[in-house]
C-alpha cells in the first residue's frame, strides 16, 4: 500500500485520527527548516503537508505569506526545497509527505520534470491549490505517470458535481476546507454544512478526509473527528510558533513539540 493508505489503516485499527501539520519548506532557512520538520515528526505528526516558497500564494493568509517571504529571503529555491525533501525522506522513510503549492511552480519545472522529481525524492501526494477540476487532467496524468497521488480541495460551497469530481480525482486523502477565505489561525469559524459535505464525499467513495483551515485548538481536532473526517491539518497555528521564535531556535522547537503532542493527543 502507499504511505497514506498505510497510515490511515494503522490509525483506524487503533481508533485514532490523523494530525497533519503544515509548514513552508525552508522557513526560516534550510537548516532550521529541517530541524522543524524533524520535530514535527518526532513528536507525533502522522503525515506532513509542506509548501514550496512562492511569492504569490493563492490560499495563504498573512502568517503563511510571511513564511513564504522568509524562505525566499533565505534564497531557498525549488532545487533547495527538493534537497530538503530528499533529506526528510531519507530520515523518515515511512512518513506520508504531501505538497501544497501553486501551478506556476510546477509549470516552471514542466509537469513531467516536476512530478518526476517528486517521485525521486519520495513525495507521496501533491495538491495544486489553483487548478480547478475542469483543468486538472494534465496534472493528474503527470502525477499518476510518476506514482504521485493527486489531491483536490472540497470547498464549503461545493455542489454535487464538484463533490463527485473531488472524490473521483483525489488519491491518498481529500482536503476539506473548513470555511471560505484564506488560511488563518485567528479565523476559527467553520461552515455550518461541513457534516453534510463529509457524508456526500463518503457517498462518492472519497479517500480519507482531512479537514483544514482554522484548526488551531485540540477541541477543533476532536470536533472534526466527531464529524466523521479522518484527521485534521493545522498550518497557520504551526507556522505562528516559528514566527514567534525566529530569534530562539531551541524555544521554537520546544514549543512546536508541545503543540504537536497536544494536537495529536486530541486524536486518541
UniProtKB/TrEMBL annotation:
<keyword id="KW-0028">Amino-acid biosynthesis</keyword>
<dbReference type="InterPro" id="IPR013785">
    <property type="entry name" value="Aldolase_TIM"/>
</dbReference>
<feature type="active site" description="Proton acceptor">
    <location>
        <position position="49"/>
    </location>
</feature>
<comment type="similarity">
    <text>Belongs to the TrpA family.</text>
</comment>
<comment type="function">
    <text>The alpha subunit is responsible for the aldol cleavage of indoleglycerol phosphate to indole and glyceraldehyde 3-phosphate.</text>
</comment>
<feature type="active site" description="Proton acceptor">
    <location>
        <position position="60"/>
    </location>
</feature>
<comment type="pathway">
    <text>Amino-acid biosynthesis; L-tryptophan biosynthesis; L-tryptophan from chorismate: step 5/5.</text>
</comment>
<keyword id="KW-0822">Tryptophan biosynthesis</keyword>
<keyword id="KW-0456">Lyase</keyword>
<dbReference type="InterPro" id="IPR018204">
    <property type="entry name" value="Trp_synthase_alpha_AS"/>
</dbReference>
<dbReference type="Pfam" id="PF00290">
    <property type="entry name" value="Trp_syntA"/>
</dbReference>
<keyword id="KW-0057">Aromatic amino acid biosynthesis</keyword>
<comment type="subunit">
    <text>Tetramer of two alpha and two beta chains.</text>
</comment>
<protein>
    <recommendedName>
        <fullName>Tryptophan synthase alpha chain</fullName>
        <ecNumber>4.2.1.20</ecNumber>
    </recommendedName>
</protein>
<dbReference type="GO" id="GO:0004834">
    <property type="term" value="F:tryptophan synthase activity"/>
</dbReference>
<dbReference type="GO" id="GO:0005829">
    <property type="term" value="C:cytosol"/>
</dbReference>
<dbReference type="InterPro" id="IPR011060">
    <property type="entry name" value="RibuloseP-bd_barrel"/>
</dbReference>
<dbReference type="InterPro" id="IPR002028">
    <property type="entry name" value="Trp_synthase_suA"/>
</dbReference>
Amino acid at each position: 500500500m502507499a504511505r497514506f493508505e498505510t497510515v490511515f489503516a494503522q490509525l483506524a485499527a487503533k481508533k485514532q485520527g490523523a494530525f497533519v501539520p503544515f509548514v513552508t519548506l525552508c522557513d526560516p532557512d534550510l537548516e532550521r527548516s529541517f530541524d522543524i520538520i524533524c520535530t514535527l515528526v518526532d513528536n507525533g505528526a502522522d503525515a506532513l503537508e509542506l509548501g514550496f516558497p512562492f511569492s504569490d500564494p493563492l490560499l495563504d493568509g498573512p502568517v503563511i505569506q510571511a513564511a513564504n517571504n522568509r524562505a525566499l529571503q533565505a534564497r531557498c529555491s525549488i532545487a533547495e526545497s527538493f534537497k530538503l525533501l530528499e533529506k526528510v525522506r531519507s530520515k523518515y522513510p515511512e512518513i506520508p509527505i504531501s505538497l501544497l503549492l501553486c501551478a506556476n511552480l510546477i509549470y516552471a519545472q514542466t509537469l513531467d520534470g516536476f512530478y518526476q522529481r517528486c517521485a525521486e525524492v519520495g513525495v507521496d501526494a501533491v495538491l495544486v491549490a489553483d487548478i480547478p477540476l475542469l483543468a486538472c487532467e494534465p496534472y493528474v496524468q503527470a502525477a499518476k505517470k510518476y506514482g504521485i497521488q493527486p489531491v483536490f480541495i472540497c470547498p464549503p460551497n461545493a455542489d454535487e458535481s464538484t463533490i463527485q469530481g473531488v472524490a473521483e480525482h483525489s488519491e491518498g486523502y481529500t482536503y476539506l476546507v473548513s470555511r471560505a477565505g484564506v488560511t488563518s489561525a485567528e479565523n476559527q469559524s467553520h461552515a455550518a454544512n461541513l457534516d453534510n459535505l463529509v457524508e456526500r464525499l463518503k457517498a462518492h467513495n472519497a479517500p480519507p478526509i482531512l479537514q483544514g483551515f482554522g484548526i488551531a485548538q485540540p477541541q477543533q481536532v476532536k470536533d472534526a473527528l466527531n464529524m466523521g473526517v479522518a484527521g485534521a491539518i493545522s498550518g497557520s497555528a504551526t507556522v505562528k510558533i516559528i514566527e514567534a521564535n525566529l530569534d530562539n531556535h531551541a524555544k521554537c522547537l520546544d514549543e512546536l513539540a508541545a503543540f504537536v503532542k497536544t494536537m495529536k493527543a486530541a486524536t486518541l
